[in-house]
Design a protein that fits this description.
single chain; 356 residues; alpha/beta; Spore Coat Polysaccharide Biosynthesis Protein SpsA, Chain A; 2 domains; ten-stranded mixed beta sheet; two-stranded antiparallel sheet; 12 strands
């Protein structure tokens, strides 16, 4: 008789007290055999009473919750470090990452496990993310990777009627609500701690594809997510630095050479965007990170580790990427009418040349 796959659900909080009840009610609601499910809540030194709110909820609703363990890190480990704290020691078959501003539906875990168990080559299976603020709209039906290293939610703000009905491959799974196969993580590695936050799920999904695994969307597994694109200027340092790290560590060298003209053009456009947006200092700080010897030692080491595990070349990887920038928060008339058509033409030529 087959055994029920075990799952460690991981929630990393950082100043998310206002969402604690929403998130915890989802944990109470989700149906999965309790002896196969453990919830791990990691608090990254929140200053708003997040962990106290979690403890208060557990005290009032302990009988309704799965087994729930609390970890107080004592400092902000970032999204990468907070999740790695649990994944590094997990003995479960799967880990499910749930954002602290997200909430389960009754069948969320059953449906995502069903897809993973029937697709053994899947290293990650993302739930369909629905906007909690307006449940008639989608947040993500899988995330896309643009060839210059930008990542964005496919389907964000689309009507829920547009959602896929069948399991299908995606570029990478959003860390907001995704099941990871632990046997794959033990082969590939966990989140890159250096990335801290932003692009860490893109980096992991890309590495999964390089090693030969697939990333899938499970459209019947629903997770409600209070998604808002962060508008703070401080985010741009990590986003731009991490985008550069991912490009330099995961592309093969001949591909980087071939993409160089397009990457330079996009870099110049990003500088203009930074100046206009008032975060040119963050952009310069991100670029300056690559002037350090320690940065290049880290990049060289990671490239070597990825090369040892590579099973798919960039010819196959590029087929899974998109040419255009289509994140609704940064689209404008120039991008839609001029930049995107040019990038489509450019990446079509690159794909035709890459044979490795």
């Amino acid at each position: 008789m087959p055994t029920t796959p075990t799952i460690d659900v991981i929630v990393v909080t950082w100043n998310h007290a206002r969402f604690v009840e929403f998130m915890m009610e989802g944990l109470c609601r989700v149906e999965y055999p309790r002896d196969a499910l453990t919830v791990h809540i990691v608090d990254n030194a929140s200053a708003d009473g997040s962990i106290d709110a979690v403890k208060a909820f557990i005290a009032q609703h302990e009988g309704r919750l799965p087994k729930t363990l609390i970890y107080e890190s004592g400092k902000n480990l970032g999204f990468s470090g907070g999740n790695n704290l649990i994944m590094a020691h997990s003995t479960a078959d799967y880990v499910y990452l749930c954002n602290p501003d997200a909430s389960f539906e009754v069948d969320t875990l059953k449906e995502v496990i069903a897809v993973a168990e029937s697709h053994q080559n899947a290293a990650s299976v993302q739930s369909m993310l629905v906007l909690a603020q307006d449940t008639t709209k989608l947040n993500s039906v899988g995330n896309d990777i643009q060839f210059a290293g930008f990542g964005y939610c496919r389907g964000n703000m689309d009507p829920i009627a547009n959602a896929p009905t069948e399991v299908r491959p995606i570029s990478y799974a959003s860390g907001a609500g995704t099941l990871y196969r632990m046997s794959a993580l033990r082969t590939i590695g966990l989140f890159d701690d250096e990335l801290f936050a932003y692009h860490e799920d893109l980096d992991l999904g890309w590495r999964m594809m390089i090693v030969g695994y697939d990333n899938l969307i499970a459209p019947k597994s629903i997770l409600y997510h209070h998604y808002e694109f962060p508008r703070t200027i401080s985010k741009w340092y990590l986003m731009e630095r991490n985008r550069g790290i991912v490009l330099l560590t995961l592309y093969q060298i001949p591909t980087l050479v071939l993409l160089l003209p397009g990457l330079i053009a996009i870099e110049l456009a990003t500088w203009l965007f930074a100046i206009k947006g008032g975060w040119a200092d963050k952009k310069w700080r991100a670029v300056s990170w690559f002037f350090k010897g320690s940065s290049w030692r880290y990049i060289s080491k990671k490239r070597h580790e990825v090369a040892k595990l590579r099973r798919r070349g960039d010819r196959e990887i590029l087929k899974r990427f998109v040419a255009v920038i289509a994140h609704q928060e940064v689209e404008n008339g120039f991008v839609t009418a001029v930049a995107n058509p040019l990038m489509r033409a450019y990446i079509t030529i690159v794909r035709a040349i890459v044979w490795w």
